[in-house]
Amino acid sequence: MTRPQIAKEKNPVFGTGILQGMWVTMKNFIDSYFKKADQGGIFTIQYPEELCRISENSRNFPFLVYDAAPDSPRCTACGICERECPTKCIHVEMAKDTAGKPLRKPAVFEIDYGLCMNCGMCEDVCPFDSIFMDRVYEIAGRDRTKDMLIGKDALLKPNAYFQKIRPKDAADIDARRKAAEAKKAAAARPATPPDAGGTAS
Amino acid sequence: MNPAMSFLDSIFVNLKLWTLNLIGHFLPGWAVILASIVISGVVILCLGPVIMMYLTLLERKVVGRMQNRYGPNRVGPWGLLQPIADGIKMFTKEDIVPTNADKVIHLLAPIVIVVPALMVFLVVPFGRDMTAADLSIGVLYFIAVSSVTTLPIFMGSWASRNKYSMIGGMRTAAQMISYEVPMTLAVVPVIMMSQSLSTASIVNAQEGLRWFVFTPWGLAGFVIFFICTVAECNRPPFDLPEAESELVAGFHTEYSGMKFALFYMAEYMNAFTLSAIAVTLFLGGWQGPFLPSWVWFFTKTFALIFAMIWFRATFPRFRVDQLMGIAWKLLLPLTLVNMLVAGLWYFIPGITGWVGAAVILAVSFLGLTALNKPVIPEKRVYLLEN
Fold first, then answer.
1. What is the pLDDT of residues B164-218, one digit of tens each?
2. Which of B66, B366, B379 sits opposite A29 (nearest CB)?
């Protein structure tokens, strides 16, 4: 086994390494004025004025999607998300009409953002494509019991918003829903002319 | 020089004369003399802190840029009000004195440290006829006063009764005393050539573009002097007395609030005055073509301060033995050679003297660095054989 060679000194004259080091910092100093962030300039983002670009896969707190109007959300208040939520931060109550008959839409839908741990299980389990993960992050509040408890009105956001923040997922889901609706309609059509079938037979 | 330029050149001098004339109409002669002293004093007492405030901003901005970030830019346009915000913060902070501290000395140290820093301003020639006190022993005065800085730092570190402070103070004493030797000896060729100890006449000896830095001995002397000034005001890479990673904050560990700010003020004012003296001795002071004299002076001084900040952004801290080694084994012999070279340069006129001086300096530099090369022991490799 040969002995490992000790690296020869690169700078024969004392002080050249110092000058090389100084040139590095000077280059940074000059570049900070004349170069863009991706070419060696300053890459600091001045936060309140300019915001970080968020990738499409960014996820944090859940919100609810509605299609036409906030009165008729996709959510049917089935309560699956409420049961699946690991931190139990979702609270759903189904709406009832005056006769006490369930209306298949939420009367109360509350998420405690203070408890939510952004796991996204609610999104995964929702059978009605209603609850999705949002990307809001400027939600600081002064009181964690009041300001972090988000009610139904604040949670409901139009489908257009969902398409804006997550275009790819939204397109997939919209296509799936449209296909399901078409299938449903197709399944319903043979059911509509029972009379015709009856007369034929 | 055209009239507009000469007006700008002597604007501050004329302003003072005009004020004194105005006072002379109403008050007796002794009051005018007193007013003359007071005006110079007040200008210096205001200039020091204001320069210190904006040096902190400049430092933070430049170091930030060198580390690929903006410095402070929130308070006021371009962060120009940041030093004022810092000042208010410092004033409102709690002043903590350790229980076992020597209370009187602990209080005195930050007050005393500002005094030599301000006193050096007296002999700095800010422009043509703009030396506050043109002492005939200006350089000697500067060397004597600036070396007093060691004392308050040691006072503070001793009075804090804290081991970190103590080590910081010990390091300061060792470092400052060591670096004073090559610094003083680097000044000697300048005094030899200008045949005067007065800062104003040293500047006058560099009339036109015959700045001392353009000669072999001047360049060597300037580099040595500048390295020593950086060490004298405890700035990186010579910041061993306040090495954060080793000593918390070194000699000012136990200081808070305005006392801490006073230590900082002294440090930055020292950085300014030492740069100013380096400019005076080697870079021709306020001498320079086209621009008013004081513009030249401040441009050169801030260029040197920029270099100090540049050092800070670039170099890691020295080890204690390296620090002492550079002062005693490299800079001190070089200054001795430099004095000899200055004599040769003076007595051998023309190109021969120039080349001879340059060659002697280069050879001695290479020789000294070769002699000082640390011995790196050969790496031992133990083979594992069964």
1. 888 888 888 888 888 889 999 999 988 888 888 888 888 888 887 788 888 888 8
2. B66
Give me the domain span that covers residue B331.
93-371
Domains of chain A, start order: 62-188 (3.30.70.3270)
Domain membership of residue B282 (yes or no) is: yes
Residue in A14, A25, A46 to test binding to B, most B beta-carbons within 10 Å: A25
C-beta atoms of A29 and B378 within 8 A? no
pLDDT score of A197: 47
For residue B95, how many C-alpha atoms fall within 13 Å in the half-sphere facing its CB? 11
Site from B68, B238, B363, B385 to mutate, A interface, most A CB atoms within 10 angstroms:
B68
| Structure confidence at residue A200 (pLDDT) | 45
Searching chain A, which residue's CA lies closest to the CA of residue B378? A6
- Chain B residues whose CB is inside 8 A of the A39 CB are none
ipTM of the complex: 0.76
Residue B182, in any domain of the structure? yes
Identify whether B170 is part of a domain: yes
Of A6, A21, A40, the CB nearest to B379: A6
Grade residue B224 by pLDDT with cuts at 50, 70 and 90. very high
Mean pLDDT, chain B, integer: 85
